[in-house]
Specification:
Elements lengths: L1 H19 L73 E4 L8 E6 L4 E6 L4 E8 L4 E5 L2 E5 L2 E9 L2 E8 L2 E8 L3
Length: 183
């Protein structure tokens, strides 16, 4: 019976404490609440009494939180696109002039021996990237996505008076370069 009395008394004390202590919380963190008497603390020899580094917490403003908020991890870095190693056959290496009109839109195409292409548009825009040229098709890996041509060919023609040219046709659009005669 004595044990039951102790548990009932403890429960009654807890209920009374809760009932009387349910006023507005004390939120002035720069001063002690009324009637507060600090108790002496024991210092640990060799311990650093200075506070640790300031950390942000998830506690509302004006309330101290004993647990620091976890540090936010940086966002993952964007991955650079993986571009193929370019290949340009010797027959294409060099500069090819477009017609500077609607169908070509390219003023010039330059293929390099190390497998790159430079596209110079009529509006001044220049795109550069690896060119992967096959026997009859090609893909130009420039910013904005690869430009694919299903068919390409090169043919020579004689314009007379000692002038010779090569004609590069990319899916029906023609680009030329002079190969003989006065430039």
């Amino acid at each position: 019976m004595g044990m039951l009395f102790k548990r009932t008394a403890v429960a009654a004390i807890c209920v009374a404490a809760l009932a009387t202590g349910c006023g507005e919380p004390y939120t002035d963190i720069d001063s002690e609440p009324p009637g507060f008497t600090p108790t002496p603390t024991h210092e640990v020899p060799g311990a650093d009494p200075s506070p640790g580094p300031a950390t942000e917490s998830a506690a509302p403003p004006g309330v101290r939180s004993p647990v620091p908020a976890p540090a936010a991890s940086p966002p993952p870095a964007p991955r650079a696109p993986v571009l193929p190693k370019g290949y340009v056959p010797p027959a294409l290496v060099g500069e090819w002039d477009g017609d500077n009109k609607d169908s070509a839109q390219l003023a010039r195409i330059v293929f390099t021996a190390d497998g790159y292409v430079v596209l110079r548009y009529n509006n001044g825009r220049v795109l550069t990237g690896p060119a992967l040229v096959g026997n009859s098709s090609m893909a130009l890996y420039v910013p904005g996505g690869p430009i694919r041509f299903a068919r390409w060919s090169v043919s020579e023609f004689d314009a007379g008076y000692g002038y010779t040219f090569e004609n590069l046709v990319l899916d029906g659009v023609s680009y030329v370069r002079q190969t003989g005669g006065d430039p």
